[in-house]
Design a protein that fits this description.
The chain is mainly α. It has 3 helices and 2 strands; from the N terminus they run αββαα. Strands 1-2 form a two-stranded antiparallel sheet. It comes from Pseudonocardia eucalypti.
Amino acid sequence: MYRVFEALDALVTVVEEARGLPMTANCVVPRGEVLDLLDELRDAIPGELDDAQDVLDHRDDMLSRAEQRADELTQRAEEDAAKLTGDAQAEADRILADAREEAEQLVSRARHDAERTVADSRAQAQDLADRARAEAERLAESGEVAYRQAVADGEAEQARLVAQTEVVQAAHIESGRIIDAGDREAQRLRAECDEYIDSALASFEETLTRTLTTVQRGRGQRGRWSAVGAKDRIGTDLLS
C-alpha cells in the first residue's frame, strides 16, 4: 500500500510541476515519466489489494476464533456458575441441617434439665415438708410433755397445799398460777412450731420460684407455660 501512495504522490508532483499552456488550463507533462508512474501504480495495486484481502480474511478468521473463544468462555462460566450455585446450595442445606440438629439437641437438653430440676425441686419440697412435719411433731410433743409436767406439778402442789389447812387458799392460787403458766408454755410452743413450719414453707417456696424461673428462661415460651403448670401442680400437691 505504501508503493501505491508513493506513486500517486509522484504523479501528483509531476502534474503540479508540468509546464502550463498559455491561455488554457492545460499543461504539458512528460509522457514517459507519467507512463512509468502509471505502470508502477498498476503493478503495485494488485499486490496491495491482495495484501488487503489477506488482512480482511485474517480479520474474519480472528473474529471467528474470538467469537468461538468467547462462546467457550461463556459456556465454561455458566458451568462454573452452576457448579458454584449447586455447591453453595449444598453447603447451605448442610449448615441448615446442622443448625436444626443442634437446636433439637439444645431443646432436648433443656427439657431434660428442666424435668430433672422439677424432680429435684419436688424431692427437695418433700424433704422440707417431711422435716417441717417432724419438727412440728417434735415441738408439739415437747409442748405436750411440758404441759403435762406443769399440770402434774400444779396438781401435786395443790394436793400438798390442800393437805395444809392453814394455806389452802394460797395453795389454790398457786396451783392456778402454775396451771396458767403451763397453758401459756404450751401455747408458746405451739406458736413456735407454727412459725417454724411457716418459715420452712416460705423458704421452700422461694427456692422453688428461683428454680422455676431458671427453667422458664431455658425452655422458651413453651417451656415457660410448662414450668408454670408444674409450679401450679406442685402448689396443689403441697396444699393437698
